[in-house]
Design goal:
248 residues; alpha/beta; Arginase, Chain A; seven-stranded parallel sheet; 9 helices; 13% strand; globular; binds zinc ion
Amino acid sequence: MKVVFHEAFYPVYAGDPAAAAGRMEAIMETVAPVADVVEADFAAETDIARIHTRVHMEWVKRQGVFETAALAAGGAILAARIGLEEPCFGAIRPPGHHASTDWAWGFCYFNNMAIAVARLKAEGKIDTAYILDIDLHYGDGTVETLGNKDYVTIHNVAAFDRSRYLDEVRKEMESCRADIIGISAGFDNHLLDWGGTLETEDYREIGRLAAAAAKGCNGGCFALLEGGYNHRVLGENVLALMEGLSGM
Ligand SMILES: [Zn+2]
């Protein structure tokens, strides 16, 4: 399975947990041996401007993270384009689902998912998109940027109980009809992470459900890294989701 990544995601770029030392290493040490790693490229300013205001882009520049954030957004676009052909995971940071049109919080700068989906739509590669957000936290930025677009359906999984959580994902995936399914893949709901809810195997099941839903629609699917802060389990959780997306 293809994993979009860039070595520029390794360095610490801020003082928050998403930017912590060792986080991307924990993922790549586990997934690189079994993945086909594809290098991310920068998003063009026109791609970012499809979602964010110039004022917001200037703010990101002032934070000193524009290049890293533009590379993450470009990685998201690449993962989504690959996702049209085969399941793909974007091992990118900073994350994006708390980034709105003209502001951002929660360790996010640009809304990678929104930028990627809007690019596919602008290119005419999709008519409809479905975004499943499995992060512990509500993806307010994705809802703010894409929630008013007729072509996008967004679902933030809300259940706090493990079996209800999986039931909710199953129900959503069974009724989902879209040309592309994008998973905002936060792993902070894991038992050993902040949320304390999901087992590693549950990420495999979520991946399987999304891949099956995409296949049922003759569509594609991809996932983008959002949260997930326990480096001891992050790699195996990402791998489980990837394997599920690959039908394993
Ligand atoms: Zn989160």
